[in-house]
Write a structure and sequence with these properties.
Helix content is 23%, strand content 32%. The protein is α/β, with parallel strands linked by helices. Bound molecules: zinc ion (2 copies).
Length: 244
């Protein structure tokens, strides 16, 4: 599979970083995981076939992870592809229904099937085997595992259950919103993340969802994680492409 990291910022603006979004491509099957502000434009920078992008996963229902969703669906409708399937945590169906009700001209033209996922499920989505894990954030939040290779976490403080969840995976993409020393309830900071993942059997950890204070010291973030986590650690950049 090919993973394109579309956005790597947290909530605050960063000229180099859009908000969260990840495009997965497996033999032409496209899945978009999260789509915060700027992801619509990032997708436009790629030569994707918009009508093929019909499967969407949300880690959680915070604005910086879904604000471009209706823009994408509207564009797809105008391009002749009104159908989409959306997966998200409990609450997604009511959330999307109410959101679409605010825009009848969109609601009346897009056809979206919503599947709410619980933690601990494994199911087939667009050719991927997808498993879910509950994270620890302000609202119901999931981590998704794809084909036992890749885990993309929603926002969370470091979750001990990840150690088992990522076993044998090649890549874990995890938020690191703030550097050490900043109060970060229900988000991750690097030393604590490394401590929790110290014995996680995953080859490569990519840090993302960076607030400006974290983005300004990426080397320090990596060093802090690696005090305890022994494997490869890097910091995500927008439009980074990874083949797994
Ligand atoms: Zn976020
Ligand atoms: Zn959040």
């Amino acid at each position: 599979m090919r993973v394109t990291i579309l956005g790597t910022a947290g909530v605050l603006p960063d000229p180099q970083r859009a908000q969260s979004g990840y495009l997965l491509d497996k033999d032409g099957q496209l899945v978009l995981v999260d789509c915060g502000s700027g992801v619509f434009s990032r997708l436009a920078q790629l030569s994707i076939e918009w009508t093929q992008l019909d499967t969407f996963l949300l880690t959680h229902l915070h604005l910086d992870h879904m604000s471009d969703l209706l823009s994408i669906w509207t564009a797809r409708w105008l391009l002749g592809a009104p159908d989409a399937t959306l997966y998200g945590p409990v609450g997604t169906r009511e959330f999307i229904t109410r959101l679409l009700d605010l825009f009848p001209y969109i609601r009346d033209h897009v056809r979206v099937i919503v599947h709410e996922l619980k933690a601990g499920e494994t199911l087939s989505i667009a050719g991927f085997e997808v498993s879910t894990l509950a994270m620890n954030h302000y609202v119901p939040t999931l981590a998704y595992k794809f084909d036992k290779k890749l885990v993309i976490c929603g926002d969370s403080e470091p979750e001990p259950a990840l150690v088992d969840f990522v076993r044998g995976c090649k890549l874990l993409i995890h938020e690191c919103s703030f550097p050490d020393g900043k109060p970060a309830p229900l988000h991750a900071t690097p030393t604590l993340l490394g401590e929790v993942l110290a014995h996680a059997d995953v080859e490569w950890l990519i840090l993302t969802h960076l607030y400006p204070s974290a983005a300004a010291q990426t080397e320090e973030l990596i060093k802090a994680v690696r005090k305890n986590f022994p494997n490869e650690v890097t910091v995500a950049t927008d439009l980074q492409v990874i083949e797994l």
